[in-house]
């Protein structure tokens, strides 16, 4: 039995789940690894353990630390008598202590105190418990942080809120004034008044592409929900009323004099655009999702998270999963009000973190550009696509026959269960596990590692079938819209580096167009009478590393031009340039990328298919050839130890929250060159669209931008593209311009280098 610990007059009552082995041995709660993290979190918030009373739902350690032991069922809905008693004892102790606030660590503590679960949803929320007569807050259990450190920054936010809430017993939640079920007259009055306000936030609820409600807020306390349908699907307004409401909404949303803020504006704006009234939202001054991501690129960016950090509003997203119209409409109005409130905090914090200028120069302009790219899409040659699909299907069929013959039975390589049986049971290979877990895996990395250690043609067949199946499912199916165009939703805050991400479009078509395999690019074609023009940055990341490291030999390699990887291979293998083999050139190319980003010998060996000893020797030779690259890496480590924040040459800031160690260092080495190139490309895209609004941008993929133009205007648009890419940035004390290669072609898979003149 591990008793509760701490004063009976404590202002803070902390509840865990059950003691662990160390707690059981020492007879005190939270003294093991989780306890050390708890102490650190309290310290970071300006609190100490002495100010708290600490206990657990159960005072005895469950067998094998498995809390499910205290339930009759596996789903955790039928508690055994000892768990019922544990919860009762805990609640009675809380009532005796009369704390200002109870902090529930994890799901079981939350269930015992509040009667429901969902800690990842409710973390950061402060609610009032009538039964206990005090405030209750929920956050992630420190033991979970030991397994998933990514939650740590959010938990730190929670503990700072805990410190503030512990000062008083009073439960303060901002009182908001919502119009939820408005009359026609009330909507008209609200929208007429909205034309005169300084700022509005907006939020859209949809069913498919159909707008069911629009929320507007003119302050953090005042909002309206304008419904268009009821839960039954019936229209909310008479036809003539609805037309007039849309007319007023259009006037307000298209008025640039009224500032607009939104969470994920790209989604709402495109929904308004495809609406029958074709509303083009104007006057957007802040996307809270993108603004937050500019400050905290490593953290989740949903409105739930922003709400938990910046407001006192408890979790409310569950209101949307209801048949109650009033609650659904309240949710819509709350989204608008919370967005308004978060915008105020984000603007101030961007200023404090000194990224406000960067946001408005490098992030905000992209929102409208990528929306236009999504609307336009890229034409698909269905004949080419269908031919490719048939070819790949035949290849899969042939490969599958070979695999089945090799193993003596049919194996579905897309089934993790069947692959586990084949590899770890039938073949008796040592199981591979997902990193940091006890889960057996058959992912691509596991297969590659096994294939190196236990060579067999089976692995090659499995990987080829998987690759081909992915092509069929991801790119060669009918992913385009009815008009024959492939679209995606670009995510401006999709990566920590600033590189755009992409996913299925809001229309339910398309997919990730950032990683289209080369064999599938032939089906992406220019419109009739037009050609594709691609501007591609040349060896951009490796070039940036050269200047960041200030290694003169490496810089000279890039400035003199020629076949950089062949020259590099000549130095590494002590050969004349003409004697370098293709294999050696490929190894040198992969070596540059891997070593620049902290790849270890083992990982590099696996990536290029060589022995670990040879990989280690090559890496040592690389650092002997370019010694300042290692010095640059040590400089990065020093800067991280000082403030954990790095600033790129383009001005992007990133604070690294990961656990200290080699994994963090590798992430940091990669960040500056990757982010610099991403923002260089984004900058070129912004310049292109600001100078030539008529430019038809189709794709932005890693290091390139692809546009289309009339066949007779290639020369003009090549010149304009090069002008947009004419960007100089200071790296390592030098003005650097990344070279650009331009290609043209009728389809993306058969582009040729532009040499000038007619093509």
């Amino acid at each position: 039995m591990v008793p509760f610990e701490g004063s009976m007059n404590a202002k803070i009552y902390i509840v865990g789940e059950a003691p662990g082995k160390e707690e059981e041995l020492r007879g005190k709660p939270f003294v093991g690894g989780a306890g050390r993290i708890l102490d650190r979190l309290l310290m970071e918030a300006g609190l100490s353990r002495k100010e708290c009373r600490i206990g657990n739902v159960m005072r005895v350690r469950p067998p094998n630390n498995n809390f499910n032991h205290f339930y009759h069922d596996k789903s955790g809905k039928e508690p055994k008598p000892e768990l019922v008693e544990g919860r009762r004892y805990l609640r009675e102790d809380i009532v005796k202590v009369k704390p200002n606030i109870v902090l529930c660590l994890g799901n079981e503590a939350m269930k015992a105190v509040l009667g429901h679960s969902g800690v990842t949803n409710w973390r950061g929320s402060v609610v009032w418990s009538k039964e206990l007569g005090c405030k209750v807050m929920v956050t992630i259990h420190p033991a979970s942080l030991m397994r998933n450190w990514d939650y740590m920054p959010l938990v730190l936010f929670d503990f700072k809120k805990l410190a503030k809430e512990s000062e008083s017993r009073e439960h303060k939640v901002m009182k908001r004034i919502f119009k939820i079920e408005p009359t026609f007259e009330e909507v008209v009055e609200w929208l007429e008044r909205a034309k005169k306000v300084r700022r509005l936030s907006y939020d859209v609820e949809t069913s498919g592409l159909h707008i069911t409600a629009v929320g507007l807020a003119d302050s953090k306390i005042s909002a309206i929900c304008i419904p268009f349908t009821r839960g039954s699907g019936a229209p909310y307004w008479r036809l003539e009323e609805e037309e007039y409401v849309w007319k007023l909404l259009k006037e307000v949303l298209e008025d640039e004099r009224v500032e607009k803020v939104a969470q994920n504006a790209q989604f709402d704006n495109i929904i308004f655009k495809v609406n029958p009234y074709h509303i083009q939202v104007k006057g957007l001054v802040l996307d809270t999702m993108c603004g937050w991501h500019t400050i905290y690129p490593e953290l989740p960016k949903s409105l739930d998270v922003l709400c938990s950090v910046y407001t006192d509003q408890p979790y409310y997203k569950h209101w949307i999963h209801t048949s109650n119209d009033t609650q659904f409409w309240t949710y819509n109005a709350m989204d608008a009000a919370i967005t308004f409130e978060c915008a105020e905090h984000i603007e101030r914090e961007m200023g404090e973190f000194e990224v406000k200028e960067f946001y408005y120069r490098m992030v905000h302009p992209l929102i409208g550009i990528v929306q236009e790219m999504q609307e336009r899409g890229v034409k698909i040659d269905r004949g080419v696509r269908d031919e490719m699909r048939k070819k790949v299907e035949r290849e899969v069929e042939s490969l599958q026959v070979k695999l089945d013959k090799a193993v003596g039975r049919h194996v579905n390589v897309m089934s993790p269960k069947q692959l586990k049986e084949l590899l770890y049971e039938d073949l008796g290979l040592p199981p591979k596990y997902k990193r940091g877990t006890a889960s057996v895996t058959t992912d691509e990395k596991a297969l590659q590692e096994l294939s190196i250690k236990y060579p067999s043609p089976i692995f090659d067949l499995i990987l080829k079938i998987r690759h081909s199946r992915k092509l069929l499912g991801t790119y060669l199916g009918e992913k385009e819209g009815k008009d024959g165009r492939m679209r995606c939703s670009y995510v401006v805050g999709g990566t920590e580096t600033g590189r755009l991400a992409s996913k299925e479009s809001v229309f339910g078509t398309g997919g990730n167009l950032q990683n289209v395999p080369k064999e599938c690019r032939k089906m992406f074609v220019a419109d009739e009478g037009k050609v594709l023009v691609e501007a591609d940055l040349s060896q951009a990341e490796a070039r940036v590393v050269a200047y960041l490291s200030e290694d003169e030999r490496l810089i000279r390699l890039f400035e003199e031009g020629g076949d950089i990887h062949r020259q590099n291979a000549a130095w590494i293998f002590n050969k004349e340039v003409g004697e370098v083999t293709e294999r050696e050139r490929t190894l040198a190319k992969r070596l540059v990328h891997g070593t620049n980003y902290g790849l270890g010998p083992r990982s590099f060996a696996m990536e290029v298919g060589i022995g670990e000893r040879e990989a280690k020797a090559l890496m040592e030779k690389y650092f002997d050839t370019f010694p300042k690259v290692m010095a640059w890496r040590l400089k990065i480590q020093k800067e991280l130890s000082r403030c954990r924040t790095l600033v790129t040459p383009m001005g992007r800031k990133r604070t690294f929250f990961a656990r200290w160690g080699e994994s963090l260092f590798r992430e940091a080495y990669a960040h500056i060159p990757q982010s610099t190139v991403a923002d260089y490309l984004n900058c070129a895209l912004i310049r292109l669209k600001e100078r030539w609004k008529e430019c038809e941008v189709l794709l932005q993929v890693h290091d390139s931008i692809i546009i289309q133009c009339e066949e007779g205007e290639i020369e003009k648009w090549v010149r304009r593209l090069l002008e947009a890419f004419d960007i100089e940035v200071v790296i390592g004390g030098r003005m650097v311009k990344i070279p650009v290669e331009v290609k043209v072609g009728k389809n993306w898979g058969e582009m040729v280098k532009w040499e000038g003149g007619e093509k």
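The chain has a mean pLDDT of 92. The radius of gyration is 29 Å.
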